[in-house]
Amino acid sequence: MTTIKIKGMSCNHCVMAVTRAMEEISTVKNVKVDLKKGGATFDEIGAVDMDAIREKIKKSGYEVENNS
Fold this sequence. Notes:
Shape: globular
Oligomer: single chain
Structural class: alpha+beta
Distance between the termini: 13 Å
Radius of gyration: 10 Å
Low-confidence stretches: none
Order of helices and strands: EHEEHE
Number of strands: 4
């Protein structure tokens, strides 16, 4: 399981938007976004391009923290 920190989420709509964005990546499964912790966990079922994840999240209006 991989964990990333996400900035800018404030409500359940944010959680749904980030979840949908991450689930669009075929090698990412079991996405769980935690609003209180400001992050997400996911399983990798193949090579995962973290830049692709960052880009999907950014296009949804949020930002992955650099230390992720």
